[in-house]
Amino acid sequence: MAINQSSFTPRVLADLSLLFCMLLAPVCLATPATTPAALLQVKSGLTDPGGVLSGWSLEADVCSWHGITCLPGEVGIVTGLNLSGYGLSGMIPPAISGLISIESIDLSSNSLTGPIPPELGVLENLRTLLLFSNSLTGTIPSELGLLKNLKVLRLGDNRLHGEIPPHLGNCSELETLGLAYCQLNGTIPAELGSLKQLQKLALDNNTLTGGIPEQLAGCVSLRFLSVADNMLQGNIPSFIGSFSDLQSLNLANNQFSGEIPAEIGSLSSLTYLNLLGSSLTGAIPAELNRLGQLQVLDLSMNNISGKVSISAAQLKNLKYLVLSGNLLDGAIPEDLCAGGSSSLLENLFLAGNNLEGGIEALLNCGALQSIDVSNNSFTGVIPPDIDRLPGLVNLALHNNSFTGALPRQIGNLSNLEILSLFHNGLTGGIPPEIGRLQKLKLLFLYENQMSGTIPDELTNCTSLEEVDFFGNHFHGPIPERIGNLRNLAVLQLRQNDLSGPIPVSLGECRSLQALALADNRLTGALPDTFGQLAELSVVTLYNNSLEGPLPESLFQLKNLTVINFSHNRFAGSLVPLLGSSSLAVLALTDNSFSGVIPAAVARSRNMVRLQLGGNRLTGVIPAELGNLTRLSMLDLSLNNLSGDIPAELSNCVELTHLKLDGNSLTGTVPAWLGSLRSLGELDLSWNALTGGIPPELGNCLGLLKLSLSDNHLNGSIPPEIGRLTSLNVLNLNKNSLTGAIPPALQQCDKLYELRLSENSLEGPIPPELGQLSELQVILDLSRNRLSGEIPASLGSLVKLERLNLSSNRLDGQIPSSLLQLTSLHRLNLSDNLLSGAVPAGLSSFPAASFVGNELCGAPLPPCGPRSPARRLSGTEVVVIVAGIALVSAVVCVALLYTMLRVWSNWRAVSVSNSDGEESAHGGHGGGGGKWGDGKYWKVGSAVSWSAEQRHSSGSETASVLHDKSTEAAGAGKS
Amino acid sequence: MAARVLAALLALALAVSTAPARASNDEGDALYALRQRLSDPNGVLQSWDPTLVNPCTWFHVTCDQASRVVRLDLGNSNVSGSIGPELGRLVNLRYLELYRNNLDGEIPKELGNLKNLISLDLYANKLTGGIPKSLSKLDSLRFMRLNNNKLTGSIPREFAKLSNLKVIDLSNNDLCGTIPVDGPFSTFPLRSFENNSRLNGPELQGLVPYDFGC
């Protein structure tokens, strides 16, 4: 009760205020009592750029004023005001309420601002009020509910906010209510259900919430209902089926749920039905096929499932069928179209469902202009009689599993503009008949298995704007007359087997913006005509065999942003590529460019990636590169650069990759590298750098790979390196480093590769290295001056695959803990001062793993009485004890095995699990005699090893680390 | 309404015209799909830019000379989420190091397509479900460490075919059945299988069904 009252209170108040205003009105209007005076007040409130109101003056008869209509036969009784579309601005003056005889006001399509004056509520003769398409603000005045004669109220396309006043339900004559494209919120008022005469209700593009109120069923005259683009929820009410005159129903882009009510099938006058973009579920009701007048049916972007149970044969007037983005499955129904010329269906969108089977059924829909069945699971071929659809403009079959060839009849589709067939399993060639498609703008064949040559006839398709053949097997040349395609903006031929030169005529494609010819077998030089491609922004030619110096005309290309010419044989100067100052990517890796790096590279201040590695560049690294403050990747590796690393590079604070390896750089490793906090990869190896490793490198906390190998660095390894806790790879091989290996390296616990070989490191191997439990690829400490025993902790490196401690001064015995290195497949302990017996579990490694020590036992000669004399007695005792233990173990195992078989027989009938584990141990022990014997090491294929060696980045050769598996393979053969 | 259809067509044209850039490298796409399913509070995947021509300069990704992805190192990176089937497209991968994270969900059977895989390190995560039989197709596999997860079901018998397998660690899971004894399993120590309360020790051919206790 209280709720009821409160909801009525504002209405009562509004009515009262209205009454008050009406009482006051004669007083207010006392002075300008005449209609012309009121109109002049209206005029004075408006800005009239076109001067359409200039004739409004008391000197002329008001009925002759522009935009004014008077009652015929009477004098001065103004019934109409029409100032639509005159660019008027300003506010609607409240004085408009002085036009007491007015029946029609049309101020639509102007630039009016401010609120809708509530005073309009006094104009009781008003039948038409059109204020749409202005910039009106404020709320819709509830006073409009007093306009009992109002038939047409259109306020849409304004900036109105607030709720729809329920009072509008009092406008009992209302036939058209247009409130679309505002910022109205709240719910649809139930009171609108009183509008028995309402024919058109447009509330779309607001932010209305709630459901469609059931009272709306009272709008029995509705012909047009649109509530699209709101936030309405709930089910679509079945009473909609009772609007027997309804012609257009648009509920698109809301949050409706539930199933589509079958009652909609009763709307025999319906021509437009749009339910797209909600969360509707269930199947398409078969009843929809009764909508014989329907021209547009859009159920797309819902969660509708089941079959495409739509028959255009029954929906004889259907032109648009849009079911994309649902969960429909099954095949396209055979009877979708009746065949012959009876079908009117022009546009069929079924994209993004789970549909399967072929598309032959579509050929009966002879009027089709657009077909989009992309992103489904369709199979079969593109029907050769596709030309039964001569009106086809758009054909999108991409992201399916179509097979077979593109039929030559495609050439008969002379209206075709878009042909999108990418990501299918199409084979065969492009039929030459394609050249007949004079209107074709977009041809996407990428990611298929098509082959053959690109037909010359393609160059007759002079409307082509975008061509993408990426990822097929086209071979032969790029058509010589490609330049005929004057409108071409995108040419993507990447990843085919194209050969021959880039045609000279390509320079005629003056609209070309993106050119991708990468991953082919193109040869020859770039034609001089390239310089005409003034629009070119992205050009990728990588992985071809293009050669020679670049034409100087390239310097004219000022719009280039991305150049990737990597992996070709281009030579000569870089200068022709530097005409643009908008370069973001310049990637020329692995070519034969020579000369110096021009300072002009630094003109492109937005450069992000500069990759010049693997060329023949000489001279110094230009200091101007320090201007490239957005640079992320700087790769100058494998050139002949000399001089110091310029200090200006310290400005490139966003660098993530700095690769200067394989040059002849001199000077020191700069301390400022420590300020490059984004650095993930730093490779300065293979240079002639001197001095120490700056402790500041420990500040590059994100560093993943640090390689300073093959330089002349001296001093000790700074313990600060231990701060690089993200580090995966540390390579300091081949320097002149001295001092001890810092135990702090144990903090780098993500290291999977650690190489410190060929230095002059001394002292013991820190036992802390055993903490590096993720070490995997290699631990290489060889060729140093390390002394002391091999720490037993190294046995913790259970993932380690290669261990090289050779050529040091390590002494003592090989710790038996190394037996725990179950992942180890290459071991080199040679050329140390180790003594004693090789632990039995390591005997499967080749002798070369252990030579150059005072070791004995397999694979080395047995430990005789004379060899390692000073430890003979101790070893002997161990051997004897071990022997006894072994014999006992064998006996025990045999016994256990027998017992186990008995037990297992027993267990087959009685389920037990607590002591099963223990017995299992015994069982495994029996079979596990192989553990540690030769058979354990039979693993590893020679093929995979050699492959690994090929990719290994380190300098160590296969002869240094002895590959157990190849040994084993050799032994197997002999 | 004509405008709406036109808009739909325009959307279609846009959809198809943006696709090539994305489709340009399958390994990069597969990795990017992984990035999208992972939650990455430490930002270790920040450098994974799908617009680059290949993923070889992405951090934690290692390529060979031919720009094929051979290593993925996301061990101990505090990532969570599930491993998707997309990783099965990294057919050149040799090392898959996803250990010590918060990965959940199942091990995708598509990992069985990684014919060049040498090391499969998924240990110390929260993986559930069974060990896919398809992993028995990993002919090059030498190291399989799936320990310290929540894996259930039995150890696929087919793993006995993994003739290169040198290290297996399935300990600390919830596996059941028996341990194979054929092929490489003849050499694996029992601690590789410990702490699987329902695992019943080595299979004894002809005596105990292999899924005994499952």
Automatic annotation (TrEMBL), chain A:
Membrane-traversing stretches: 877-897
Keyword Membrane: yes
Segment forming the signal sequence: 1-30
Domain Leucine-rich repeat-containing N-terminal plant-type intervals: 37-70
UniProt keyword Ribosomal protein present: no
GO cellular component terms attached to this protein's record: membrane
Alphabetical keyword list: Glycoprotein, Leucine-rich repeat, Membrane, Repeat, Signal, Transmembrane, Transmembrane helix
Highest rank taxon of the organism: Eukaryota
Stretches for region Disordered: 913-932, 947-974
Membrane topology: Single-pass membrane protein
Start-end of Gly residues biased regions: 922-931
Localisation: Membrane
Protein name, entry field: Leucine-rich repeat-containing N-terminal plant-type domain-containing protein
UniProtKB/TrEMBL annotation, chain B:
All residue ranges annotated as the Disease resistance R13L4/SHOC-2-like LRR domain in the record: 65-172
Keyword Repeat tagged: yes
Alphabetical keyword list: Leucine-rich repeat, Repeat, Signal
Signal sequence, start to end: 1-23
Organism field: Miscanthus lutarioriparius
UniProt xrefs under PANTHER family: SOMATIC EMBRYOGENESIS RECEPTOR KINASE 1 (PTHR47988)
Listed InterPro entries: LRR_dom_sf, LRR_N_plant-typ, LRR_R13L4/SHOC2-like
Pfam families, sorted: LRR_14 (PF23598), LRRNT_2 (PF08263)
Name of this protein: Leucine-rich repeat-containing N-terminal plant-type domain-containing protein
